[in-house]
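Researcher: I've been going back and forth with a colleague about how Stage 0 sporulation protein A homolog might be arranged in three dimensions. Neither of us has a model we trust, so I'd like an independent prediction. The organism is Acetivibrio thermocellus AD2, in case that matters for your notes. Sequence below.
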Amino acid sequence: MGAKILIVEDENDIGSFMVRTLNRKGFNAIRAETGKEALRLVELEKPEVILLDIMLPDIDGFEICKRVSRQHPEISIIMVTARGEDVDKIRGLELGADDYIIKPFNPMELIARIKAVIRRTNKPDNSNEVVIGPLRIDYNCRQVYKNGVVLDLTPREFCLLKVFVNNLNKALTRDEILNWVWGEDYIGDTKTVDVHVRRLREKIEDDPSHPKYIETVWGKGYLFRKGD
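Model: Here is an independent structure prediction for Stage 0 sporulation protein A homolog. You can compare it with whatever you and your colleague have in mind.
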């Protein structure tokens, strides 16, 4: 059986279609129709990926995204929304979502996004550990420590940090970061990079408003320094 995918969708026609489509493609798809049921299934079933609708009858998708990201950073979240406004996309990403897809969507695009998220999360690491000042990055356990305290990084944030560390003191464009962290098949814009950089700064920097590790290179992108 393939990766377990939790679909959180209250509309029966759409939810049933998504379950059938993913199961036919070899995934193990399960479904929740409410936010409360989704939170229960997260604890019971431990899915690898959650397809999370924003508009639900009880708890909205943004609140679920925030809770799951804090309690289970190892679970990847793809927001599913009928609204294409940038503010919704950015809010979801800021709360911990890894990707988003807009209704109505092509089933093959949905499958491609799921596979891309799983591929990035499971990508093997070649080295074991890197220490940069108070930061210790354990590639085997996929954990980051600051002053000995583990940081709650999502899989995407961990991958982003790894890209920065592998390119110390090198200015990277947003497109380069997008390709390395999200993959060349990612369909989206560079605002995604800015949102995830902001979230990563909040977790590794002493003062995110005056970062010493992740610097903004105006007109280009970002640069990671050792923080000396």
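Researcher: What would you highlight for our discussion?
Model: I'd start with this: The CA atoms of residues 144 and 151 lie 6 Å apart. After that, consider the following. The first strand starts at residue 4 and ends at 8.
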